[in-house]
Amino acid sequence: MLLDEVDHVAIAVRDLDAAVSWYTETFGAEVSHRERIESDGVEEALIAVADSYVQLLTPTRPDSTVAKFLETKGEGIHHVGYRVKDCATALEAAVASGARAIDSHPRPGSRGTTVAFLHPKTAFGTLIELVQE
Fold first, then answer.
1. Which of 54, 84, 114, 133 could cross-link with 90 by S-S, CB 3.0 to 4.6 Å?
2. Residue 79 maps to which CATH number?
3. How does pLDDT run across 58-78, given as a tens digit for each residue?
4. What does 23-40 look like in DSSP terms, one character per residue?
5. pTM more than 0.90
6. Are 56 and 102 in contact (CB under 8 A)?
7. Per the structure, how many domains does the chain have?
8. Tens-place pLDDT, residues 75-125
9. DSSP symbols for 55-117
C-alpha cells in the first residue's frame, strides 16, 4: 500500500478569512499553518483535525487552478491529499497503473513537503495530491 493516510482535504473558498472564521466559530478550530504558495497562485490555511488537515484554499491570481475551479464549480472540495513515504515512487506506480500525472516529477509543496498531483479524469473525478513529508 503506497498511501499511508489522508493528509488533507482541500476546500476552495473565495474568502479565506471568512472561511477560517467560520471554522473557528463553528468548531473552535485553530489555524495550525498559513502560507502563500506563489508557484500555485494560492493562499492556504491549514486546520488540524487529528493527524490530518482541512486545507482552505483561495486564489491569489486569476490564472490559478483554484481561481478557475471557483469560476466553473464554485466553492467546495477541490482535492484530497494522501501521505506517501516516497512521492516519486507513488507517482511512478500510479502512472504505471494508468493514472494521468499533472506533475511529471514531484515538486515542493507547502510546509516543506514534496508533492505531485494526479488528474481527476483518471481518478474517478477526484484530483489527488500525493504528499511526502
1. 84
2. 3.10.180.10
3. 999 999 999 999 999 999 999
4. HHHHH---EEEEEEETTT
5. yes
6. no
7. 1
8. 999 999 999 999 999 999 999 999 999 999 999 999 999 999 999 999 999
9. EEEEESSTTSHHHHHHHHH-SEEEEEEEEES-HHHHHHHHHHTTPPBSSSS-EE-GGG-EEEE
